[in-house]
Amino acid sequence: MRTFSVPVGISNRHLHLSEEHINQLFGENSTLTKKKDLSQPGQFAAEETVTLIGPKGKLEGVRVLGPARDETQIELAVTDAIKLGLNISARDSGNTEGTPGINISAGDKKVSLERGVIAAMRHIHASEDDALQYGIKDKDMVKVLFEGPRGGILHNVLVRVKSTYALDLHIDTDEANALGLKNGDTGTVIIED
Amino acid sequence: MRTFSVPVGISNRHLHLSEEHINQLFGENSTLTKKKDLSQPGQFAAEETVTLIGPKGKLEGVRVLGPARDETQIELAVTDAIKLGLNISARDSGNTEGTPGINISAGDKKVSLERGVIAAMRHIHASEDDALQYGIKDKDMVKVLFEGPRGGILHNVLVRVKSTYALDLHIDTDEANALGLKNGDTGTVIIED
């Protein structure tokens, strides 16, 4: 068994928009305005927010992340989805086959999304150097241990390796709250050889 | 190492009220009206609901559980508490020293609670027969394993033994959603001797 430490980054509910949907929601030829950089290089929180409208409720002020993507994707905690009346499952980013849709509004503009609402599968971002150093590779599944009064071990944590990534464990608010974690806390990756 | 199976019961946010607070919120000499029995014998969900008002937000339709208790106690998921603007910690039931207060309203009646908002520490209810059969005792701390795509192991699960208890693992909505659990799913208790 080998172990190494990762910093915890908690993802609040958010969405990624296609250029087409950015134009439909914020006006023709509009672009996202950067509010602040995120831990992964090139990614940013935008000034733009939307309202998500599901069959049972709505969520206001949901943050758009940039840059634009090929396909619109909405990442919620399961707690959020239950409030909206949606049944979502944990998916790797981009795997939206068979996922529920939702209505997205910004001011008086609206987009009706046919699919793309997921619970992001918990995952570790790692650079190629990190992967070499820690003996992991893209698509590995590992376990991560957390200490503390609400400690425990999360299984099935997906490893994603890319030269531009910074080492970071991304979990959602349900996972963080269940385990008593805050941004910047540390988890211990467990690799069972 | 020994193991045994427990059924999972998910506690939505709820509160227990003292007789004094029942009278203040629902009228002099009022009592709670049973809506349905809960898994633990004698405990019930009441018809009565309240609004919880915190420094940053409010939650409507929060269910009162009966019967009345000596002290009012509000059990929230951390996700709920963040919405209300409260910083809560995982506590054993009844251990409300140093916990935040909140305003409770029902119609035009209001109670200002000085303390008593907690995240219930995850726990297993077991009868004395269960305890004998599975080799556990009151106040033991055990681990519980869950299978599935969001599986994992929760540490520091408190054992509570009482003759009237039915075997049940109680977790909150954050814990259930983080681990992909539904009511009636099964966990495996792990006892490391």
TrEMBL record, chains A, B:
Task: List the keywords (alphabetical).
Answer: Acyltransferase, Metal-binding, Transferase, Zinc
Gene Ontology process terms (BP): 1,2-propanediol catabolic process
Presence of the UniProt keyword Metal-binding in the record = yes
Cofactor(s) listed: Zn(2+)
Transferase listed as a keyword: yes
What's its EC?
Answer: 2.3.1.222
Q: In which pathway does it act?
A: Polyol metabolism; 1,2-propanediol degradation
Q: Which reaction does it catalyse?
A: propanoyl-CoA + phosphate = propanoyl phosphate + CoA
Please provide, alphabetically and separated by semicolons, the GO molecular function terms listed in this UniProt record: acyltransferase activity, transferring groups other than amino-acyl groups; metal ion binding
Regarding protein family, the annotation reads: Belongs to the PduL family.
Instruction: Tell me, in a sentence or two, what this protein's role is.
Output: Involved in 1,2-propanediol (1,2-PD) degradation by catalyzing the conversion of propanoyl-CoA to propanoyl-phosphate.
Q: What is this protein called?
A: Phosphate propanoyltransferase
Specify the species.
Dehalobacter restrictus
Organism lineage reads as: Bacteria, Bacillati, Bacillota, Clostridia, Eubacteriales
Gene encoding the protein: pduL
